[in-house]
Amino acid sequence: MNLPLTIKDTKEGLLTKKFSAVELVDEYLARIEKNKDLNAFLTISGDFAYEKAKVVDSDLQDLPLLGAVTAHKDLFLTKGVRTTAASKVLESYVPEYSATAVERMKKAGAIMIGKTNCDAWAHGGSGENSDFGPTLNPWNKKYVPGGSSSGSAASVAAGLSLIATGTDTGGSIREPANFCGVVGFKPTYGAVSRYGVIAMASSLDCVGSFGHTVEDVETIFNVVKGSDGFDSTVTDEKYEKKNGKLRIGIPKEYFVEGLDKEVEKAVLSASKVFEKEGIELVDVSLPNTKYAINVYYIIQPAEVSSNLGRYDGIRYGNARETFGAEAKRRIMLGTYVLSAGYYDAYYLKAQKVRSKIIADFDKVFEKVDAILAPVSPTPAFKLGEKLNDPLKMYLSDVCTVSANLAGIPALAIPSGFSQNKLPLGFQLMGSRFSEETLFTLGKLYQKSINYIPKLP
Question: Which of the residues are catalytic?
């Protein structure tokens, strides 16, 4: 078998007996062992994988994720398999139940191979904030893979798993997908249950996925979406599919000073591909974009400080002094903006500006079906480059946080490489529950450029 496979290739290979699920697990485990230095995994669940592979081989059914070897971000609870959130606080925690997304993927035929490294509690944009050491970028080990879902993106990019789950609170799926050259998808807030996923910032967290093709993440989304009775924010929406000519908006606020020239060129090249395919390009404006990063870094730490309050070291987990530096920084920032005397000045004001950001998107989506923009202002940066400058690190989220504040879906797609041979790409954002439109556009792009996934 030649990796990388897609979900479709895997299914066809199993159903035609070209290879077995056990052989697939052998192959991926061998690759994980060979690429140990990437530090993409925190826990390998080989026994569970072989057990599930034998079930798949003995009863071949045409399931959506048949034999799809899957890595789960270590924020997803997995029954009987250690879940740490990449923090020493939960170093030896083994959950009694699995997250809804994990259960649904398992029922659809997925084989869990292990749990991936991430920035501890998902706090970070580079993959360097894990209490168990940083994940490295498979394309160049001197560079970051992006965060916080660093191990998941690196795992798919390096062929250590076919697909992977992630969470996106301010770009934590799209940025690592962009830095590692894979497809990353963040759905509409309220499309997928967060039950059994360790919370970071509850009004922003989204459960999404990584794959080699747009079709792969679409398949995963169709398996995990919809209400489960455990997350009250989830709604069973009818996903509208747009018919007729589609229009893509190019927002001027995303093409400003500080945007790397190669990144800009890659995004504009993608727009030309869409234009060639008969998609109309429209210049649009999102004037409140400039406030998004400020708003995000008030709301997010406030919700972080509230969510991390439960880890008191009494019922389970280690004591609070075990928290890493970034977790402590966000707890203190969040506690400060929520405290008496500052709540109105910071948190309340931030929520009002958030409403203006949402209104900007609503207005633009009256004119266009999707927005095309960069994912990050630069390609992947060097390990350690921004580690001692939190502000610089936070600014790497400048292109992604708006989608989380507005609760809209976004799809990161690879488009080539920089002169330094680092992945480049772009993102498509759509109105709430316009997933179908984003998938249609994403598949159109990959078909148009005859996209063939490759491993480093």
Answer: 73, 148, 172
Identify any residues that bridge with 164 across adjacent strands, giving them in sequence order: 71, 210
Tens of pLDDT, residue by residue over 426-454, are 999 999 999 999 999 999 999 999 999 99
- Pairing between strand 163-168 and 183-186? unpaired
What value does the mean pLDDT of the chain take?
96
Burial class of 278 by CB neighbour count within 10 A (0 to 12, 13 to 18, 19+): exposed
> What pTM does this model have?
0.97
Question: How far is 373 from 57, CA to CA, in rounded Å?
Answer: 43
Q: Which of the pair, 220 or 390, is modelled with greater confidence?
A: 220
With a CB cutoff of 8 Å and minimum separation 6, the contacts of 245 are 278, 279, 280
171: helix, strand or coil: coil
How far, in Å, CA of 398 to CA of 395, rounded?
Answer: 5
3-state SS assignment for residue 210: strand
Domain ranges across the chain: 7-288+354-448
Q: What is the reported pLDDT for 197?
A: 98
Q: In the chain, what is the greatest distance between 2 CA atoms, to the nearest angstrom?
A: 67
429 backbone dihedrals φ, ψ, rounded to 5°: -115, 145
Which of 26-30, 341-345, 407-411 is least confident?
Answer: 341-345
Name the nearest CA neighbour of 361 among 405, 296, 297, 412: 405
Q: Name the nearest CA neighbour of 301 among 324, 325, 335, 352.
A: 335
Ordered strands of the 280-284 beta sheet: 41-44, 111-116, 69-73, 163-168, 206-211, 183-186, 410-417, 423-429, 370-373, 247-251, 280-284
Give strand pairing partners of 363.
none
Q: Which CATH number does 7-288+354-448 carry? A: 3.90.1300.10
Joined tokens for residue 62: 């045409």
pLDDT digits (tens, 9 = 90+) for 238-256: 887 777 799 999 999 999 8
Structure token pair of residue 225? 């979406």
